[in-house]
């Protein structure tokens, strides 16, 4: 059975000489990251567990310390590596109206009973998440993932219901 992993950040560089690292991550994920006890790093198709000793947040990044990594030399090998959690662990911390990007990509988008396109990606503009919707005319439109526009998401039915306000989809 294959484990699915979800990226939660990237080790940007070392911080100090005691094995701490600067961690880059998506905006507004501090609560999620502070609940994690372990993450994984991928090397040669293998995922190795790293136990989080502590994490703190600065305006630009997080400072993370792993158990057993206590020097500059120990942390340097992880510079530039992505950190992952298991998909199940990521799901545990999702709020009721939050989804994993992998779950949304490929879903059909409907306005009423009319299929208007499908999700090809998800991004964030700092204010909200944006669904990249490929319309039936093959254009890509960015749809703000807000309650006024995205009325419902049904993962089982592979369907997103939107309020297609004028000018939203090209």
Number of helical segments?
Answer: 4
Number of strands: 12
- Fourth-tier CATH superfamily name of the largest domain: RimM
- The spatial strand order of the largest sheet comes to 1-2-5-4-3-6
CATH architecture of the largest domain: Beta Barrel
CATH topology grouping of the largest domain: Elongation Factor Tu (Ef-tu), domain 3
Summarize model confidence as the mean pLDDT. Answer: 88
Structure keywords:
single chain, 170 residues, mainly beta, Elongation Factor Tu (Ef-tu), domain 3, SH3 type barrels, 6-stranded antiparallel beta barrel, 6-stranded mixed sheet, 4 helices, 12 strands
In words, what does this structure look like?
There is one protein chain. The protein folds into 2 domains: 5-92, Elongation Factor Tu (Ef-tu), domain 3; 101-162, SH3 type barrels (Roll), CATH 2.30.30.240. It has 170 residues and is mainly beta. The N and C termini lie far apart (41 Å). It contains 4 helices and 12 strands, in the order E-E-H-E-E-E-H-E-H-H-E-E-E-E-E-E. The radius of gyration is 19 Å and the shape is elongated. The protein has a 6-stranded antiparallel barrel. Strands 10-9-8-7-12-11 form a 6-stranded mixed beta sheet, with no helix packed on it. The model has no long low-confidence stretch (mean pLDDT 88).
């Amino acid at each position: 059975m294959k484990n699915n992993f979800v990226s939660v950040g990237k080790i940007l560089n070392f911080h100090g000489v005691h094995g701490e690292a600067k961690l880059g991550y998506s905006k507004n994920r501090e609560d999620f990251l502070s609940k994690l006890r372990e993450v994984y790093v991928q090397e040669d198709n293998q995922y190795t567990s790293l136990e989080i000793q502590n994490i703190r947040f600065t305006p630009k990044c997080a400072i993370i310390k792993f158990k057993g990594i206590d020097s500059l030399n120990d942390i340097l090998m992880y510079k530039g590596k992505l950190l992952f959690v298991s998909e199940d662990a990521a799901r545990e911390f999702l709020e009721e109206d939050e989804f994993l990007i992998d779950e949304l990509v490929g879903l059909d988008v409907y306005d009423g009973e009319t299929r208007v396109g499908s999700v090809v990606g998800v991004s964030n503009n700092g204010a909200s998440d944006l669904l990249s919707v490929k319309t039936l005319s093959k254009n890509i439109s960015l749809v703000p993932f807000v309650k006024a526009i995205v009325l419902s998401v049904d993962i089982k039915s592979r369907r997103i219901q939107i309020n297609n306000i004028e000018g939203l989809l090209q």
